[in-house]
Amino acid sequence: MDRRSVLRALGGALVAAVALPKMAWAAWSKEAFDANESTAAMENLFGTADVTSSEKVKLKAPEIAENGAVVPLEVSTDMNAEQIAIFIDKNPTPLAISATMGAGAAGLVKTRVRMGETSNVVAVVKSGGKLYSANQEVKVTIGGCGG
């Protein structure tokens, strides 16, 4: 291996290191995450806030969160999910997470979120270009967002 081959390999690695993070951020919706109302966040993320409640979307959340700083949430579906998002209505920024699912990926997202007060949690699954949802109220006994 000569000097030019090494320099080409290093140059290629540098280009990949710079380009990959930008490609990963390309699908990120700043407007959706910055929105301070669930409907606006949903419209910015999906282009619409027209959702249909579905029993095929399963939201697993505690009825009472003893500590709002760490609230476990799980969304699952048997549908061919393209995207899964979780909205917390009374949080300062309602969009908690948005996950784009790859082809053949299981429709499952698990996360832990902060909740400052009792709020409605809405799980939205995009499948076949349509939005399906499930929701549940989570009562918070100790504030997590500065409470």
Description:
With 147 residues, the protein is an alpha+beta fold. It has a single domain, classed as Immunoglobulin-like. Helices cover 25% and strands 37% of the residues. The chain is built from 3 helices and 9 strands, in the order αααβββββββββ. Strands 1, 3, 5, 6, 8 and 9 form a 6-stranded mixed beta sheet that branches. Strands 2-4-7 form a 3-stranded antiparallel beta sheet, with no helix packed on it. A hairpin with a 2-residue loop joins β8 and β9. The longest helix has 23 residues. The chain is globular, with a radius of gyration of 19 Å.
User: What proportion strand?
Assistant: 35-45%
| CATH fold-level name | Immunoglobulin-like
Q: Count the DSSP helices.
A: 3
Number of strands: 9
Helix content: 25-40%
Please tell me how large the radius of gyration is. 19 Å
CATH class category name = Mainly Beta
Class by SSE composition: alpha+beta
Largest sheet: 6 strands, mixed
Give the SSE string.
Answer: HHHEEEEEEEEE
> Superfamily at the CATH H level?
SoxY domain
Name the overall outline: globular
Cα separation of the termini: 61 Å
Oligomerization state of this entry?
Answer: single chain
In total, the number of domains comes to 1
The CATH architecture designation is: Sandwich
Rounded mean pLDDT score: 85
Could you provide a short overview of the structure?
With 147 residues, this protein is an alpha+beta fold. It has a single domain (29-140), classed as SoxY domain (Immunoglobulin-like), CATH 2.60.40. 25% of the residues lie in helices and 37% in strands.
What is the strand and helix layout of this fold?
Blueprint: H1 3-25, H2 30-34, H3 38-46, E1 52-53, E2 57-60, E3 64-65, E4 71-77, E5 83-88, E6 95-100, E7 107-113, E8 119-127, E9 130-140
Parallel strand pairs: 1-9, 3-9
Antiparallel strand pairs: 2-4, 4-7, 5-6, 5-8, 8-9
